[in-house]
Structures are given as structure tokens and as C-alpha cells.
């Protein structure tokens, strides 16, 4: 069974997609078979890997209501060990179409069940909301990873995210655990980053990743080349940080789930 990690935070711009793409690519470097799933209608994870909006190929939306076809929408990324199930703006429609479907929270789960056995990790990128697509992603996953940007309102909204997590776990997906919180865009010269780190450490003593992702311009440049940072500048601090995060994920306490 794959470890299915959902990257969620209803705030935009906190580093979800950057974390999804670069964690996935770093796990692939470790020769883990990885599938990255783009559940965001903005399709940033897809374009960051060279799948552009307007691309008329099969995508997560086109197979969402026919899970047996999941494989039709899965592509090679050109990176060894890494596949993608891309998302497009058509997903905006999915959020609406799902509303009156029976079992509407489980469509992405069903889709991924078709291919689960082929991967060690499935990394799911979410839109910046707690709507039905994010709930679907939470229901499809076994572990939740929350990126938090080191800024003044970092913890704002986290209570709501955790409440959604608790509800999903209680009512819909008892297999979902918190993998951890990862601090992103950390700037060691900035006192605020340091304060946020301490505050988050107090709030999540058990769940804060040791690895902290620094603010690094290479991380923001790489998507425009359609590449994860390790395929763009392997020596950058951003690449190093995500490789270290992947190692921490692999040895994380929930690793036993791989064999569940
Ligand atoms: P989200 O998916 O949560 O909306 P993104 O991953 O798209 O957030 O990040 C928002 C913006 O910040 C993007 O332009 C991205 O390239 C940039 N970014 C993300 N993480 C970093 C980082 N560690 N250093 C520098 N820029 C970053
Ligand atoms: Mg995003």
C-alpha cells in the first residue's frame, strides 16, 4: 500500500505546491515510486512539471467519474520514478458536480485505489480552500502534511484546518494521521521567522518537522522551467532542504504504515 500524503492548508501561497512537487521529486531521487496528484484547479503542480493549462490530454477531472480509467490520465514526468496525475481548471466544475453525488467525498480515493499498488508514495496537492476537493484529498490520504509559511499570521486558520482534519478522521477516514507541520520560506535573518518557529514548536511539539525550508529563490524559479528544484539547481539550499525533508518523511514514525 502506498503512503498517501496530502499537502493541505487552506491559505494560499504558503508553499503547498512547492512542497508537493519538491517532496515528490526528492522521494523519486531516493528511488521511491511516486505519483503526484494535482487536485487544485489552478494546476500549479502540473505546470511546474511541464503540464500546461489548456493541455487537452486526460487529467484528473476527465477520469474523476470513471475511476477505472485512472491510468489514462497518469503520465511520465521525465523524472525517473515520478509520475503525475495532472489537474486543470476543469476541476472548478468538479467541486460543483460532486455536491449532489452520493459518496461525494470519496471520488479521488476511488480513483487512487486503482493505482495505489504501483506506488510507494502518492503526494496530493490541494487547492487553497477546505472545499470538497480538499475533503476528497483528505479522504484519499493516509497522512496529512501541513506547510506553514513563516509570517506573522502563520497560525491563523490552522485551528480550522485541524478541526476539518478531526471531522474527516472521525466521520470519513479513520486512517488519516498527522504526518507533520513543515515551516516554509524561513529567513534566518528575519526575527519574525525565528519567532514563528518558536510559536509553532510550542503549538505542535510532536509534529513539527526538524527540517525547515528556507526562503530560496531557486525554489521560486524552478517551476517556470517546468522542473522541480533538484532538476534545476541541485546544489541550491532549496534542493538540499527538500531532499532532507524527504529523508525525514521516509524515516518518520508513520513509516510502519507502508506495510499496513
Ligand atoms: P501554495 O501552493 O500554498 O499556494 P506555492 O507553493 O505556490 O504555495 O508558493 C507560493 C509562492 O511562493 C510561489 O511563487 C512559490 O514559487 C514561492 N515559494 C514557495 N516556497 C518558497 C521558498 N521556500 N522560497 C522562495 N519562494 C518560495
Ligand atoms: Mg498551490
From TrEMBL:
Pfam families: AAA_31. Coiled coil: none annotated. PANTHER family: P-LOOP CONTAINING NUCLEOSIDE TRIPHOSPHATE HYDROLASE, PARA FAMILY PROTEIN CT_582. SUPFAM superfamilies: P-loop containing nucleoside triphosphate hydrolases. Residues 3-177 form the AAA domain. This is ParA family protein.
Amino acid at each position: 500500500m502506498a503512503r498517501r500524503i496530502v499537502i493541505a492548508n487552506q491559505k494560499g501561497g504558503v508553499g503547498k505546491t512547492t512542497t508537493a512537487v519538491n517532496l515528490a521529486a526528492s522521494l523519486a531521487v531516493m528511488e521511491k515510486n511516486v505519483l503526484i496528484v494535482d487536485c487544485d484547479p489552478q494546476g500549479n503542480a502540473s505546470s511546474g512539471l511541464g503540464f500546461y493549462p489548456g493541455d487537452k490530454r486526460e487529467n484528473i477531472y476527465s477520469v474523476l467519474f470513471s475511476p477505472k480509467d485512472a491510468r489514462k490520465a497518469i503520465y511520465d514526468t521525465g523524472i525517473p520514478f515520478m509520475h503525475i496525475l495532472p489537474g486543470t481548471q476543469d476541476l472548478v466544475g468538479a467541486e460543483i458536480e460532486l455536491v449532489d453525488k452520493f459518496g461525494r467525498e470519496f471520488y479521488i480515493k476511488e480513483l487512487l485505489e486503482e493505482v495505489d499498488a504501483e506506488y510507494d508514495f502518492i503526494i496530493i496537492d490541494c487547492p487553497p480552500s477546505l472545499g470538497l476537493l480538499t475533503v476528497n484529498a483528505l479522504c484519499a490520504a493516509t497522512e496529512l502534511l501541513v506547510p506553514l509559511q513563516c509570517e506573522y499570521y502563520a497560525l491563523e486558520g490552522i485551528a480550522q484546518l485541524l478541526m476539518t482534519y478531526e471531522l474527516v478522521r472521525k466521520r470519513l477516514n479513520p486512517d488519516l494521521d498527522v504526518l507533520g507541520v513543515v515551516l516554509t520560506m524561513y529567513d534566518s535573518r528575519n526575527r519574525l521567522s525565528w519567532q514563528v518557529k518558536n510559536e509553532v514548536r510550542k503549538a505542535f511539539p510532536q509534529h513539527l518537522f526538524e527540517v525547515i525550508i528556507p526562503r530560496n529563490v531557486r525554489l521560486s524559479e524552478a517551476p517556470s522551467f517546468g522542473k522541480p528544484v533538484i532538476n534545476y539547481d541541485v546544489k541550491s539550499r532549496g534542493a538540499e532542504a527538500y531532499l532532507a525533508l524527504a529523508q525525514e518523511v521516509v524515516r518518520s514514525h508513520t513509516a510502519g504504515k507502508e506495510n499496513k
